[in-house]
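Worked example 3. Consider a protein that binds nicotinamide-adenine-dinucleotide.
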Amino acid sequence: MNHGQREKVFGALELSDANAGVFDGDSWTAGGAEVPVISPIDGSTLARVRQGNKADYERVIASSVSAFAQWREVPAPHRGEIVRQLGDELRRLKEPLGRLVTMEMGKCLREGLGEVQEMIDICDMACGQSRMLHGVQTHSERAHHRMYEQWHPLGVVGVITAFNFPVAVWSWNTALALICGDTVVWKPASPTPLTGIACQKIIERVLRRNGMPAGVATLFTGKGSEVGELLLDDHRIPLISYTGSTLIGRHIGEKVGHRLGRTILELGGNNAVIVTKNADLDLATKAVLFGAIGTAGQRCTTTRRVIVDKSIYDRFRDRLLAAYKKVTVGSPLDDAILMGPLVNANSVRSMQAAIERVKREGGSVTWGGRVLDGAGYEGGCYVTPAVAEVAGNLDIVKDETFAPLLYLMSYEGDVAHAVALQNGVPQGLSSSIFTNNLLEAETFLSAVGSDCGIANVNAGTSGAEIGLAFGGEKDTGGGRESGSDAWKAYMRRQSSTINWSGEIALAQGIVFD
Ligand code: NAD
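Given these inputs, the predicted complex is written out as structure tokens:
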């Protein structure tokens, strides 16, 4: 890692060689183990972070509970103004923060910068939304009664995030939770504490200069199975928003559900693109390429399966392979590179294991899947992106392998056959169809079409904008974040009836004299 570059980024984001990984609303102190943060680019140690322990956790939650008592009384548009200022700070620091994302988790710099842009976008949207937290009003069946619903702040929101969008997912949750009057406790993923600390420092400055209690947003780093677990049983936290694997998400849903807490679960995907004989193949090829290898196949919305009409299968495969052969793999800080490393050696191993399983289950690996460890790749976690040809949804295909491993399969007959293959996996996050035929597109979007939370026509599975609600069905967990009315999950709804008749009139015509 270029030392000067690291110094510049650390200086702009107020990071040091050794950092406390806990912010309790007042100070940066942590009593847990000190761990190195290793860059997947070259295996170098970026910095050390001291994680939190149980005593730190108690301080953080107490501060968040106490800040909530004040924050919920700040008018929502004023809360929105603070989120707007957060967006401005992110504009100012977009370059160093985007670069830190790349250094810490390995996505290409252009994607690291795009991730920070997404944070800015959600702040802008949340600021506007802060003036539109409206409920319905309706007519009462009783004379001289008025009925309406209102939305109140919920409380402390625990936000547990995945490594692959180390800053955007925090901002999706935090921007909305803050305008809704909630306070936020953030537990970032273990491989990415530095981006967490950097974001926390940014928001802390914004809150302080507005005279707000800094406990409105707090941070707690550490191992999920130890410190993350503390959030799950805690009755002081009415909502846990969790982004991560389905395996851990199921556990979180069960534990929080047991105490009747609420969850927003954003779990694994197994996203497919359908390419029909009426598709523009250039368009489809470009979208599949970005969808499959963007963030080195480590997006929840990564294209994992392509389901191609048999009559054009060979033509599409040849185009796609030609595009794959041009993909450059290397340091994500280099502008010429399209695919950076996987996040760590474990991910490399699980991709290799998946490739072996594909072969055992009868598929063939047509391209890629090699581990790159020669000159230029020393210390890093580099692989070539892989394409495997399979006959339908083999068992391995039904699992999410979080790596650039793309499955190609064909379908015969009308688009319903392709939809059946697409829907025939446990996950239900994102899906696309490439066609210029209106009937095929509408079938795909209909009630008998895609069963995913996201369904696109002539646009890939990844790269969603923040304007619509984001999330998926089935094993993807059913949660929704970001745009549309996703804000409602961060508030409590209250239905109110106001009687100005001067008498007690009962609903349903009941007389009780
Ligand atoms: P992960 O499940 O390993 O970890 C996610 C978070 O959970 C981390 O912060 C981790 O420390 C924490 N955690 C682990 N065990 C815990 C426990 N017992 N209690 C509380 N917290 C615990 O996931 P990952 O490898 O960081 O991320 C990749 C996964 O995330 C993929 O499956 C991907 O599809 C999914 N993801 C989903 C979305 C979405 O919006 N649907 C977005 C991004 C990533």
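Take a moment to read the result before moving on. The chain has 15 helices and 25 strands. The chain has a mean pLDDT of 97.
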